[in-house]
Amino acid sequence: MLAEENILILVSLFAFFQFLQVMPLINQYYYVGFWLDSCSCSDTASIQLSKFGHALRNLRWNKLQDVLPPEIGELKKLTHLYLSFNIFRGEIPVELANLPELCYLYLHENRFTGQIPPELGSLKNLRHLDVGSNHLVGTLRDFIGNGNGFPSLRNLYLNNNDLTGVLPDQIANLTNLEILHLSNNRLIGSISPKLVHIPRLTYL
Length: 204
Prior knowledge:
Blueprint: E1 7-12, H1 13-19, H2 23-26, E2 31-33, E3 44-50, E4 65-67, E5 80-82, E6 87-91, E7 104-106, E8 111-115, E9 128-130, E10 135-137, H3 140-144, E11 155-157, E12 164-165, E13 179-181, E14 186-187
Parallel strand pairs: 4-6, 5-7, 6-8, 7-9, 8-10, 9-11, 11-13, 12-14
Antiparallel strand pairs: 1-3, 2-3
C-alpha cells in the first residue's frame, strides 16, 4: 500500500493526531518513530514511517502544545511514548490505557492537570511511568487502588505535582518497583512501614 520504505511527512500536531485515526491499518506494516529532540518546533512534527518497530521517540524538549487527544489510544502497537519537556495541557487521556504494548511513558515537565488515570494500572507491560513536574491532583489511593495493577512497573515518578493524602499501604503491592519518586507534593501522615515489603526498591 505504501510503496516507499520510508516516508517523511511534515504536518501540524493537530493534523498528526487526526492521522492517528488511520494508524491501525498502517500499523500492520510500519513503525512510527520520532527524532525531534530539542528541535524547538511549536506546532509541527516530522513523522517518519519505517518498518523497524513501534515507538514515538524523542519528542522531548520541543514546544509542542495543546491537549493530548484520545486518538493516541489508536496506536495499539506503541511501546514507547516520550513527550517530556513540552507544553501539553489538559488531562492525561485515559485512552493511553488502550495501548497494551506500552512499556515506557514519559510525560514529565508539561502542564497536565486533573488526576492520573488509574486505568493505566491495566497496562501489563508498563515498566516506566514518569508524570513528574505537572499540575496533577488527587490521592495515591485513587491512583493505585488496591495495588493489583501495574504488574511490571519498576520506575514511578510522581514528583513535583499537587498530590494529597497519605502514602497508602497498597503501594507495597507494586512488588517490582525499584524507583519511587514522590518529592514536592502535599502528602501527609507517616511513611508506610509496608514499603519494606517491596524487595527491589532502591530509590525512595
